[in-house]
Target: Acyl-(Acyl-carrier-protein) desaturase
Amino acid sequence: MSIKNVRIEVMHFLEKNIDSFVENYLIPVEKIWQPSDMLPDSRKENFYEELKELREIAKDLPYDFWVVLVGDTITEEALPTYESWLMDVEGIEQVEEGPGNGWSKWVRHWTGEENRHGDLLNKYLYLSGRVNMREIEMTTQHLINDGFDIGTDRDPYKNFVYTSFQELATYISHNRVAQLAKKYGDNKLSKMCKLIAGDEMRHHMAYSEFVDRIFKVDPSEMMLAFQHMMKLKITMPAHFLRESGDAKGNAFEQFSDSAQRIGVYTALDYVDILRKLIDKWQIDKINGLTAEAEKARDFLMKLPDRMTRISERIIIPEESHIFKWVQPALVK
Model:
């Protein structure tokens, strides 16, 4: 049987438990928070007082903080790209009946939860009055137009390694933004980002559970997929980020510099996520590997220390790039 057919069989095997995945890792629509729960209610007479308070507190947030918050928002708003990519993974079908339909249920419900993140952050940015919304909207449209290539092709094993890693990375980013917002006195924004981070952690736990179950039934191929993704390096979903008038990807490095300068997401965080996944999946204890997969395991076990040494040599520019989204004059 071909590697592709084995993967599809494994996906069908996992699909039998899809309802329990949805029940354990996602929250029903009527019970989960919605963006309007976190923002001033335009139906109430005190709307303008609450809006004024939101805008006053927002004035104290520094430049790099705004850059990171905008970048995180744009990343969340590019959700159509991520859903369409996952829907094309082998073993996931959009048909109403038959194998694969359970996975499409998972992807749609996951997308429904993720969709609230961009909605909330976008509304907050608009109400804050501290950013250029038109520039942000153009960057978002460009990012969706440009799509992305995360190096997984249609391989479910590689895609689940990617989502396991990326959901934990977004948890770290949103959680750190929440901590910084609280430090600067914006408790409401801190709560917003904390709630988003909570969603991301649940999603990480789900995708990492998918990988863990694959390791139990197809350990060698799962090990090789893990090695492939780490050799390739995990590409952030906004790696094609650009401002209006710029070439594809021109803004991503400067956005990453801002995130590293204020400690929201750093090269050492990348290494820490890798260590966590190695521990979570107990890579050192997996049995029954082929010779090739054993070599892959050896590579993975040594990789965190190698990457730590590289990360410690990275120099981040002290000067902030001036983004069209957040000119310093708007922040003052």
